Every structure is written in structure tokens, then in C-alpha cells.
Amino acid sequence: MTARFYASAAALALFAGAAHAGGHLPFAVGEGDFSWDSYTAFADKYDLTGEVLEVTGTWTGNEKVQVDKALSYFAEATGAEVRYNGSDSFENDIVISTQSGSAPNIAVFPQPGLAADLAAKGYLTPLPDGTAEWIAENYSAGQSWVDLATYADPEGNAQLYGIFYRADVKSLVWYSPTSFDEAGYDIPETMEELKELTDVIVEDGETPWCIGIGSQAATGWPATDWTEDMLLRTQPPEVYDQWVANEIPFDDPRIVAAIEEYGYFARNEDYVDGGAEAVASTDFRDSPAGLFSIPPKCYMHRQASFIPAFFPEGTQQGEDVDFFYFPAYADKDLGKPVLGAGTLAAITNPSDAAFAFIEWLKTPIAHELWMAQGNFITAHGGVNPAVYVDDSLRAQGEILSNATTFRFDASDLMPGEIGAGAFWTGMVDYTTGADAAAVAKGIQERWDAIQ
Questions:
Q1: Are 76 and 25 in contact (CB under 8 A)?
Q2: DSSP state of 81
């Protein structure tokens, strides 16, 4: 739901060419906390003078400016000309270009499902042998990232098709440090402690949570995120994967229980600002406002890393508001799962420059060059956390680095009619009082009907 702004390929190519000329690199090579040794080693290995690398993705506006700067160092290191094209219709554009034989060298996918579809049709190129092992060893929760980028080829054989460049974290709870300090509350480190804190806040005569799942035509999606997070905290990740693939039905007792774990918080009159009936009617963008009221109308708000965009103007992260990891149960021994999203770089038109770019994404410097600009976190274990532009991103990066399991937003992996349809509306029905098992049964019946 991010606004996208189109930028012409010609302008981007001009930027890359100027950067390659050596006069417009934003960070001087060899200076600062960057892992310049990885840059030097890569530059010594590759000479792509005269080659053109075409890259496309969804990054536009300010994100386009940031990725341009990061890509300029690939151009400088190799001598290649880099042309990045950001599109607000990427999903349609990449399907058309691959089918017509006019695809760029690299496509950066915001959803693994689309990449899997194109891989099955033979439009993506598998990555070299050894890449999966490298990711498993060098990314936090590395096997999770390998699995997210492994799809069936046209013959049905599993192949690794991409490497993730940029991630997002959803397993966050936002709070006011001032309100916590004044009330004497500690940051909970387990789900048991989080539930205990919730009850303590009620006993103190206050309201623990602000929750809103309204989002116009997309109303209900915040509740799906809650459910996905709770499933990862109550069941092994294999159950999550089987559920996403519809190998475990929606009305399986384990899935119903995860829905009810969301309801533990959202359907309790004492737990939510405005009472349980306000959850479905409160827009998610407005729902954290209670954190900033004086006195506070709530003490906690579970939402992804993007929610600060909807905080009051002038809000200072780390001072007025901060976050902690949405914790796991201590007694279930499921590690530290993280729910999130990310963008996957895959080869859609193979060339020497395309394969070199995949190698570039293995280097710490490729990630650090965007980390230093903001709006970027990574699961790459070799980066220097000091490069993050602020403490908030550094803390999110630490949560990601400590993850034992990472899973992509399930609703984005399901068929659109389910993940962006029946699941959303079903969670609205549950939030407003419907039985969880009945809601789950209805979603599964919808899924069965489209197969």
C-alpha cells in the first residue's frame, strides 16, 4: 500500500553513468564504518566495462533515489552501466516483459509468490550451485530465506532463484518509554510476561492495548498479521508453511487456536482502547494515537515497522515512542520467530553482469550502502550494525539478526481471493463476535471453491 512514483530509466542511467565517473559517490570509498574490504575484493574480481545491467523493481520516489546511490557503487566497482527502472505497475510489467522476451537482467520481487509463478514457467534463471548454502550460513535464520527463494522449475525440480535484498519486520510492539517509566512497567521478554503485563495494566485501572483493523477496502489485514504472528508462536514453522500451501486447512484446530490467540487481546473489553467493538471500526492508521495521549489511552500497539509514518508530527523515535520484539512463549520452545516481508532479487535475463550482481548482493557493502541512507534493514549477518542511520533501524536489524525463524506474511503468499479477500473479511467477522472455528471453516470453503 505504498505510493509509487515513476522515474524514467534514462534519468537513472544518467545518474549511474555520472557515479561511475567517480565524482558523485555519496560515501567516499575507504571512509566511515563501511565494510570497504568487501567492496575492494569485489572490484578486483570483476571487470564489466561496456556491459549494461538492467534492474527493475517497485522502488520509486525517495526509495528510488536511495537504491540509485547504492547501485552506483556496483557501477563504479565493475565499470558496468546500471539502469534501474522503478514501476508502480511492476507486477504486470514483469509478467509482460518476461513473456515477450524483453525482460531486464534483474527483477526485484516484493512477493515470493509471483517469482515462484515465473520460475515454474521458465522465466527465471536458477542461481549458481553453492548459493543456497552461502545464504543459509550468512543470513540470520538463513534456511528461512533459502526456503522463501526456492521454487519448482518447469520440470518440478526445486531450485534457488533469488537472494533477498532488504527486509521488513512486523513482529513489533510500540510503546511510550515515558508512560512505561512513570508506571514502573518493564519490557516483557516472553509472551507469558506480555500477558501478565496486560493484566497488570488493567489492574492499575488503565487500558493496555490500542488495536485497529480498519483499512477501507482492505479492512481486516492487521488482524491477519496478528494471527500469523500468533501461529508462529504456538506452532512449529512447518505448520505455518503447510497452512500457507493449504496442506493444512484453515479450520485445523491449530489455526483456529492462533485466531483465538489474537482474540485473547482484541476481543477483551478491558484490554482495548474503546472496547472490543472499536477494533473493527478503528482505522489502523489512527489506532496508535492513544499511545501519545496525556494521560495515555493505551500502553502498547502491535504493528509493523512502517507505522511511525502515522504517528503525530514531530514524534521522536526512541524518546516519545519505541518498540520491542513481540515475544515468543517461553514454554513452547519455538525460538524467536519473526514475521515480516522482503524484496527478492532474481535473474530474469541472464548475463555476466546479472550473475555478478547476485555476487554483489552477497557482500556486506551492498547492504551497508543503503543502510546508511535509512529505510533499510537486512538479515545479512556480515554487515556492520554501526552503519545503520539511526537506533530504531539498528534495533530492528538486531531483532532480525536474532531471529531463529523468519516467515513472510502468509496472506501475501496465499491466492489473492483468500489472502487479500476471505482471510481479511473473515477476521473482521471474528473480531466483531463470530466463532473462530466457523470463520475458519468459511475461509476454507472459499479456498476449496477456487481450486
A1: yes
A2: E
